[in-house]
Batch of 2 targets.
Target 1
Amino acid sequence: MISLSDAGKQFSARGKTLRALEPLTLDVAGQEFIALVGPSGCGKSTILNLIAGLLRPSEGTVKYDGVVVTRPNVRVGYITQKDTLLPWRNVQDNVGLALELKIRRTSRAAAAARVAAMIDLVGLKGFERHYPSELSGGMRKRAALARTLIYEPETLLMDEPFGALDAQLRLLMMDELQRLTQARRITVVFVTHDLGEAIALADRVVIMSARPGRIRRIREISIPRPRDIFKLRFTAEFAQLYEELWNELKDEVVKGTDV
Amino acid sequence: MQRSTFLWQVAFGIGLLGAWYACGLVFGVAWISSPVLVARKLAAWLMTGSIYLHVMTTLTEMVVGLIIGVVLGVLCGLLLGMSRLVATVLRPIIFAIYSVPLISLAPLLIMIFGIDMLPKIVLVATVVFFLVLFNTMKGVEMVDPDMVDVLKLMGARWHESFWKVLLPGCMVWILSGVKVALPYALVAATVGEMMAARRGLGMLLSDSGQKFDVTAIYALLLILTVLGLLVAETGTWVEGSLLRWRRKHA
């Protein structure tokens, strides 16, 4: 479905070249949930930008569904850490944004129905007319998720989507994400620096090395679905996986935080 | 506002008028006039209706100039903000023109466009244009590129991103530019009229000056003050109603 082959990226700024991503090869299967974990600055976000077609690789190729990605990929939805809700639109107008576009033109009545259903799905009923500035962090995340899911992208790219939320809310959102992506059979590429989050959600966890990013380890997570996000953390299976992967990750975290 | 604060403000206003009146008595009303004379003058103007023509002239120059200046300023600001090439080419010229005190263009404009409303409208439009231009360019620069990216991935065409993200995204900056421009528009219209005109508050002002009619000057300044306040209030109201989503910020 998604395949990066020797795809790397370097930026040049003021005559200096900065390598964001070492050439890297990675395949993501359709409907797979893959989590990329690594210290900050290891190029995780660059990978998402390459898949989204917002960046072009400096070398190698990025293919989506067998075709080389050369322009913004309209079959993916992208959710960043900073939510990019439009502050001048209320929740329902933000959620319905994609349906106003020509490429996804929907009749007004059909759009309203889908918006209402989507708002209900993410638990924002009663807040349709609130502006983003009037919502809590978790609600904004839900609104951003609804705005992306409404146009039914095949693939969801998520860049530390729950980074800014508190621990309880994060678990709730993880649970919701699992429910939504399983029900709709969406492919997810999920970037995080939280190993526990990655193990709880993903089919495969990719451990990245510190800058410049390389793949250090890929681990299958065979915990059966649906997973109980809230209790999973206390199981022996989880603890064992966590320890195993943490041993890989911790050297990189130390290296990555030299600053 | 607290009631006692308001009373203090009223007391201060009355005190000021009293002091003005007293100064007139002591030093002679020829130079200082007096609140009574000014009130009489205003009443006479309003009764005969002779002042309306001048007020309307100044307001028309201001409003027409504002509309032209804002429209052109926003259009050019968007163009310059979005195209680095155009901005680089035009930047030196724009800054060169802007560094001239724009009011000093008035004699030239009067020579070219005559002494009726047109040169004042052009002057107002020029002053407003630059203020709105710079703010709009800044606004385009401040639009979150991530929002534009999100729209791209949704499959938005260029014009869809423009109408849905770019323009509303700079609206805060455009409106604050317009708000700053409002008092300057009144200044430009009045100054233009003071140089050469047949009608308008600025013309009356310079005319009264030449006739040493101090009372008329004060009365005109009072009218200009009221106009200035009204214009500023209208600006604040328009901004507030267009940016309702923003007022609710915690």
Note: DSSP finds eight helices and ten strands in chain A.
Target 2
Amino acid sequence: MLEVERLCVAFRGQTGPREVLSGVSLSMRQGEILGLVGESGSGKSVTALAIMGLLGEQGRISGGRIRLDGRELTTLNPSDIRRLRGSCMAMIFQEPMTSLNPLLRVGLQIEETLHAHLPLSRAEARTRAIQLLGEVGIPAPETRVDAYPHQFSGGMRQRVMIAIAMACAPRLLIADEPTTALDVTIQAQILALMRRLRAERGTAILLITHDLGVIAQMSDRVAVMYAGEIVEAAPAGELLHSPAHPYTRLLLASLPTTRRRAPRLPVIEGQMPGPGTIASGCRFRMRCPMAVPRCTDETPVLAPFQSGRFVRCWRAGDIAT
Amino acid sequence: MSAALELVGVAHDFPVRGRTLRAVDGVDLAVGAGETLGVVGESGCGKSTLARIMLKLTRPSEGRVRLLGEDVTDLMESAMRPRRRHLQAVFQDPVSSLNPRLTVRDIVAEPLRPLGLRRTAMSQRVLSMLEMVGLPADAAGRYPHAFSGGQRQRIAIARALAAEPRVLICDEATSALDVSVQAQILNLLADLQEQLGLAVVFISHNLGAVRHVSHRVAVMYLGRIVEQGPEAAIFDHPAHPYTKALLAAVPDPAPGAAVPVPLPGEVPSPLDRPPGCHLHPRCPRTGPRCAAEVPPLVEFAPGHHVRCFYPG
């Protein structure tokens, strides 16, 4: 349903364009939840914005293809892609307060999306807005439809955002850190809501998060990003159980859990290189405890590794044994 | 053992449009030298107000604050100033807590100024602090913007520890950091705490991080401590329904981990706290007494206190 092939994105920098995404490939089936995980600056949000056609003035797609239901998105003009946004694909963000208009009643904001894509009368749109608010678990939707965003809690605002995103029944929902700003008990409610929408409507969800726990709970498959590249992609259970890339292994190990208290947390020394600073070789090699000279000399490719898995590491075979 | 920092019956009210918002309600806490006390809870539970009270930035409406055995509740800022070297803090956002116009040397030296050290002693102290938190010596001459988030948090820790405080308050100190950097800072805090015998209060909504650094943990809900005890008791055998729900809600990265059943509803506004036990409208185990009476914090197991009529 969604095919991203060798996507490259460059942002305008002081010294010329800087490549922030280098050959990112993803594919998603209908009703699938794909987790995209990585730390700040790994390129996961840029991937989402590129798919949505929201890169803005500073960024541009410098290579690759994005196809949604067979339709090429990278060559569409702005008005065509605007028509797809909201109807075929929709996106929700971390902070719902900055995505909602504080001066408009939430009902109107849902109706606005409905009118943009569907031939509905005002009364029909309002009925549909109330129905959508009910579906995302807002209590008393027939009165809350006339409330303003500030009258909602953070969790309820994220529910409103989901209602707007789901208004035209998109095939693809991109959720960029949708629960990062929420308390854990509210996060559990929003994640349950997203799982229900997927089950009831078959919406495919691209879930972007830095939280491996959220990934474990939600995803069918996972792609791990590092410094603008996908370094590992695998079914969620396998990736969490036996991570193949050294970065994924360390990322999982460095996470403090509530289940047990480790005397010391393993750490990843140093920090992620900035965009365009590594010309060749593996981008993780400077921080990698497994690195060998080949990692500097040759750039690893995302290669098949066991069935249904892909790893960008020369040493994945050695690590697995 | 006398506590390094102790709160006794602390409560705090904020006036809100003619009404009273009780942010903190009857909190007793103590943390001793060489001990880390974790404080957890969700938005609105009062943990940030509690941090401000501990730091003597807010005077509590009720109760006493004792620092190193001395009652400091009523001390004015001028009287507090010489005692501040014993009480330091690290906050969530290392961008806004470091002055962008000062070099790292000046930032770390700030708490040393009242001590009247000589220039050379001061700069030696700064360098040894940078080394202690794992920053290169040449960091001293640079400005905060030249550093990553994790490195800035190291600068903030170096500043907090420069004057050899006895008590360190960490308010969401690792919450803005990426996982791999968070691990570095948690290890650093644990090491320094042990090396220096600090009393640390680690306030966070990140339960994994709290378990990793704390010896004892207090769980807050709507201004009250609902459960308090040794780290292993709280995480492995929680007795309060809220603690259980909170722990169950943390998504577990272990493959095949159970998907939590969310606690229904949301945390009520602190302006409309339910009577009796604050949790009773959302509680799966509520009984007839819960709406009528405030349950007391009682000892459930040695050192493990629970505020619930039906614990376990």
Note: Chain B touches chain A through 44 residues (CB under 8 Å).
